[in-house]
Amino acid sequence: MPRKYVVALLLAVAVATYWNALDAPFVWDDDIAITTNSSIHDITTSLNPPIETPVSGRPVVNLSLALNYAFDGLNPFGYHGLNLGIHVACALLLFGIVRRTLHRESAASGIGSPDGVALAAALVWMVHPLLSETIDYTTQRSESLMGLFFLLTLYAAIRARDPRKKREANKKSGATQKRAAPSGSPLWTAIAIASCAAGMATKESMAVAPIAVLLYDVVFEFDSLAEALSARRVLYAGLAATWLELGVIMRYWPRSTVGGTAIGPATYALNQAQMIVRYLSLSFWPRALVLDYGVPQARHVAEVVPQLVLIGVLLALTIVALFRWPAIGFLSAMFFLTLAPTSSLVPISTEVGAERRMYLPLAALVVLVVVQIARYVRPRRMIAVAAVVAVAALAIRTVERNRDYATALSLWQSVVDRRPHGRARFAFANELMQAGRHDEATAQLRLAVADYPDARAGLGTELLLQGNVEEGVDVLQAFVDANPSLPNRAPARMLLSQAHRALAERALSQRNAPAAEAEARKSIAFDDKNADAHNLLGAALASQGKLREAVPEFQAAVRLDPQLQSAKDNLVRASALLSLRR
After folding, report:
1. Within 13 Å of residue 523, how many CA atoms lie on the same side as its CB?
2. Which residues of the chain carry a pLDDT beneath 50?
């Protein structure tokens, strides 16, 4: 099949599937990764992304965002467009990998049209709604861009062994096995190593790429591990060297959310057992997709026995297949291998799961299913019909999924409807507040605090805005007390200072000077630079005849805000009364 037709078809189908996603707004982590990320405003600074952000330790991703910013500022269209372009490039590479592999194995595979099977696999994978997050959710280009370098690394490694040279070498040596004579292309070897290095600077999940290349070679290129290591030592050494690069990146840009002690490996693994089974389910029936699965929860082994058994059986079958049916075993192993960095034992405290993690694992599943259908389904024209139906159905489902991203409000509504949890309710409530739907927002926040305690910050703020000051203060105080040293408590302290100041004002208006004094002191405890609070404390003290204590408070208020006329007047009066007493 001419290459230009493949490119044109993949591009046309991609645009038809994602046309309604290109104008989607920035959502969630896009705020700190793009809109407030000043490092992307200059190409030269983009290679040093800010720490503790979605682009931390991912300079290649940050550079790509900087290119978008240089081209069209903060217009989401360009960002989604580049995401789609990356996705199409990945589909092309997947087509190339499957096509070349099937051509080499066609005699034994029983597949009539390797090009057609490869194209069907690439199309099904490309339009699958489980991958829509990498286009719709701008920041998650980190997954697809890493996937691009991963697939390019594997493709270049395959191209590095020229089949024509191999056949000539086999003839000269009298070899009968198709993988007997090692050969290699320095150019494609260099491309594979460079691509692997770029992938390591894109996302940490790239760490498994060198293992994937070696596994491919042992299954499809060589007759033993020793032969592969002997023939391709330059390639493997170069790929392994990129692990050192990854180590430097992870040391320079550490992530407090990965591998921490807050969530143990065992707890995380039990959560992942549930998530992996869900990923498998969504691969075949992609309904009820969600943006945010929440944080890992405490789990007991008894809760996930069915999932653990299923995964154990699949792993056992994978090992058996690697010896009995190596091609099938390779694809099954690739599913687990590419999913392992995020869905095994290394805890990620901020999210229990994410559909984007299936970007590469889904490719292995799709190829496995498509190849088996092509091998066993007859007549062959039924395969083409099935492929068209599958691509059309998946594309329509993806178009529907894109609509969830039309607004941040509709997106978080979809999460709360399909998989309600505290963090999703908190995000949904924030969008409801911006839409002026405060009663609904408060209701969501009250539900959110049950399993997402940080939602108390939003609930307390909303209660204050609605005039429910006492409850708002109690909620915000609980939020601060839970982790007083965290930086995100600072805004709550400012709000508490203002709330206690408002309570002091109310107490004074009700001629309750002792209560006003107590509230004013609490306000100052949260913000000792609050001139109004010092003025109120002085007034409360003066109302109780404590002029000697009141004067310093009025003086502090004037010092902090020389324009505060009431404090000036109060100081004059208090000083005059105090002088009369003398």
Report:
1. 24
2. 164-183
Backbone φ and ψ for 318, nearest 5 degrees, come out as -60, -45
Q: What are the domain boundaries of the chain? A: 3-404, 411-581
3-state secondary structure of 258: strand
Report the amino acid identity of residue 430: N
For the CA atoms of 531, 534, 538, 540, the dihedral, rounded to the nearest 10 degrees, stands at 110
Q: What is the DSSP string of 465-516?
A: HTT-HHHHHHHHHHHHHHSTTSGGGHHHHHHHHHHHHHHHHHHHHTT-HHHH
Of all helices (H) and strands (E), which one includes residue 142?
A: helix 141-159
Closest C-alpha among 536, 117, 481 to residue 109:
117
CB 196, CB 136: distance < 8 Å: no
Place of tokens 């990146």: 249
Q: What is the pLDDT of residues 148-173, one digit of tens each?
A: 999 999 999 999 986 544 444 444 44
Angle at the Cα of 180 from the Cα atoms of 174 and 184, rounded to 5 degrees: 115
Q: How far is CA 112 from CA 100, 123, 366, in A?
A: 14, 18, 18
pLDDT one-digit tens code per residue, 292-347: 999 888 889 999 999 999 999 999 999 999 999 999 999 999 999 999 998 887 88
3-state secondary structure 426-464: HHHHHHHHHCCCHHHHHHHHHHHCCCCCCHHHHHHHHHH
Count of other CB atoms within 10 angstroms of residue 196:
30
Task: Tell me if 412 sits within 8 A of 25, measured CB to CB.
Answer: no
What are the start-end ranges of the E strands in 328-479?
none
Q: Quick one: which of 3, 32, 13, 152 has its CA closest to 84?
A: 13
**Number of other residues whose CB lies within 10 A of the CB of residue 480:** 19
Burial class (CB in 10 A: 0-12, 13-18, 19+), 344: middle
Using CA atoms, how far apart are residues 564 and 582, in angstroms rounded to an integer? Answer: 28
73, with CB counted inside 10 A (0-12, 13-18, 19+), is exposed
Per-residue burial over 532-564, b = 16 or more CB atoms within 10 Å of its CB, e = otherwise: bbbbbbbbbbbbeebbebbbebbbbbbebbeeb
Two tokens, residue 60: 């290649």
How many residues are listed for the chain in this entry? Answer: 582
CATH no. of 411-581: 1.25.40.10
* Cβ atoms of 517 and 544 closer than 8 Å: yes
Which of helix, strand or coil describes residue 91?
A: helix
- How far apart CA 337 and CA 496 sit, in angstroms, is 49
Spatial CB neighbours of 217, under 8 Å, sequence gap ≥ 6: 157, 228, 232
Structural Rg of the chain based on CA atoms: 31
